[in-house]
Amino acid sequence: MLLIKNIGKLATPLGNTVHCGEKQREIKVFTDASVLISDDGKILEITEKGNMPSCPSDIETIDAEGMLVTPGLVDAHTHLVFGGWRDHEVPLKISGASYLEILNAGGGILNTLRATREASADELFDRSAEFLSEMMNLGVTTVEAKSGYGLDFENEIKQLEVIRRLDRETPLDVVSTFLGAHAIPSEFAGNPDGYIDYLIDKVLPVVAERKLADFCDVFVEDTIFTAEHARKLLLAAQRLGMPSKIHADEINAIGGSELAGEIGAVSAEHLLSTVDSGIESLAKAKTVACLLPCTSLYLDKPFARARDMINAGVPVAIATDFNPGSCPSLNIQLAMNMGYIRYRMYPEEILTAVTLNAACALGMGDRIGTAEKGKQADFVIWNAKDLSMLCYRMGSNQAKTVIKKGKIYETR
Ligand code: NIG
Ligand code: FE
Which of 16, 62, 9, 12 is nearest to 36 (CA)? Predict the structure, then answer.
């Protein structure tokens, strides 16, 4: 057993399902609180107002020293497993080349594809495990990781196997998403239809059979995949038991968010250029809008219409999008800060966005994302006393101690 005592404020949303509209801002704050955790890493009891749980006096105890505690953060959108970096492309951007121009000239994602194909599974594992440890140091306890830099049978499977191994062999929970439709590999240049059919006929059945992915995602974008390509692939994946996610409206709004609502996708992600019809579709289906503000910053593009989405009743999550092109940052605290200043979300809404709503975007709302009896004991003790301080500081790591499944990890 573990006891976390002397918590100044324990702030958490409550429940197992998405919070949207005004509810996204509803946070329970236990003051002067303690949390008792079982040996198998579950929350046994939460007490407040100075009351202590009834437990033996000699159990392991950690003193939160009056600081803020929240549920462990959930980064629901990353491209964690990749070879190489793309630092050499930044000067191209500075001289005026756009993200899609670099990609369509064989760079961008296709550059990372070459480095990822060349890397061994062990190399990819070691590097990604390092990234995960950096993320945990920042307060993250659950991470989604997408494939999408292999773009052929062998290398997509290699990436997915690495993601499964990261889940098994690191302290974090790692959720796997098949993003075979991330770009069109040179083998299928000019033939996106053929590539989608290849994914459906040759790759998806093996991914499903070997249970290598929890979700299927598609990059719906001008000159990449249309909403019709996505519909075909995502419905095939749904039939094989993989719910849908969509990279939608990242640069151009070409129907990705509308499709997400229509086919009941769990989440639509990016949404930088979403128009009203997309917001309506997401609100109706209660599809989570997984917003990635650091990508707006890095691509120098508009910030998503988070306030309009919340007002329309769309559940909003915030994540990093960590990848070597559009967001080389894995700092979710920076994303929270951007959510505060650029999305104009309130600190309570931001907490829900990186805990419960993010957990629901990964189908894990019944296990993680809130501090409640019976849920997994994932917590962060912060070097801050309240949520507004947590969202206000920019660029520093405010995580003090991370608790994952009841085990303590001191941050660096
Ligand atoms: O989410 N847009 C597609 N995928 C990533 C970028 C991947 C890359 O550039 O390597 C994104 O921004
Ligand atoms: Fe992405």
Answer: 62
Confirm if 157 and 206 have CB atoms less than 8 A apart. Answer: yes
Asked whether the CA dihedral 399, 404, 409, 412 is positive or negative, the reply is negative
Q: Which two tokens stand for residue 312?
A: 């329309």
CB 116 near ligand 1, within 6 Å: no
Q: Is 79 in the pocket of ligand 1 (CB under 6 A)?
A: yes
* Eight-class DSSP state of 304: P
Find out whether 296 and 271 touch, Cβ atoms under 8 Å: no
Name the phi and psi angles at 31, rounded to 5: -100, 150
pTM for this entry: 0.98
In this structure, the residue with its CA closest to atom 5 of ligand 1 is: 326
Are 289 and 316 in contact by the 8 Å Cβ rule? The answer is yes
Chain segment 162-202, per-residue pLDDT in tens: 999 999 999 999 999 999 999 999 999 999 999 999 999 99
- The per-residue pLDDT for range 11-65, each reduced to its tens digit, is 999 999 999 999 999 999 999 999 999 999 999 999 999 999 999 989 999 999 9
